Amino acid sequence: MSKKGLAALVLTAVVAAGAFSFSTARTVTDVTPSAGADAPAVTVQAASAPSASKLAKAVKKAYGNNYLPNFKLGKNDIKDKYGVASSLYSSAYAEVPMISAQVDEMVIFKAKNSASKKKIVTAIKKYQKNLIENSMQYPMNVLKVQASKVYTNGKYVCFFILGGYVDMKTEENGSDEQILKAYQDMNKKAVNAVKNSLK
User: Fold this and answer.
1) pLDDT, tens digit, 9 for 90 and up, residues 97-119
2) Listed residue (158, 147, 165, 164) closest to 193, CA to CA
């Protein structure tokens, strides 16, 4: 082979090797970007905490047809009913029944800060106490109201009276303690739904 032909062959090999190296380097860069300021793709943003309405949606899903509240409250209604001003929370979701014979209700607050959370908890516990001790209830709802649940998790404050009614056998043959526990167990489903949504 002539020197000219050999030189051409070597040049071709060098160019091919360079192209392979460039292609390989580019592929690696695309798959694993550098961690510098110009590589935002590798920056992992922390997930934002869900809104009260998102948690409420999870609770509703957990109960299905046994979720009875069907009237959503606005900010003014929430303040009037629970004594919680909108300035204390970043989001809230509250629903009550339209029928007076039912007592199922749900309210979830996402407090703005720890100080706001304390005020919300105080207001909700006051509401619960008044509901149990001073409100007039149908006989079938007395124990259900007593089983109501105030639940807090992080910046969230919840109040639950959910699940419909206990089965007929428990209602007719169970003691007050058994019926009360049955209603308390119903509210645990809401608590678990919130816990799972915040994991």
Assistant:
1) 999 889 999 999 999 999 999 99
2) 158
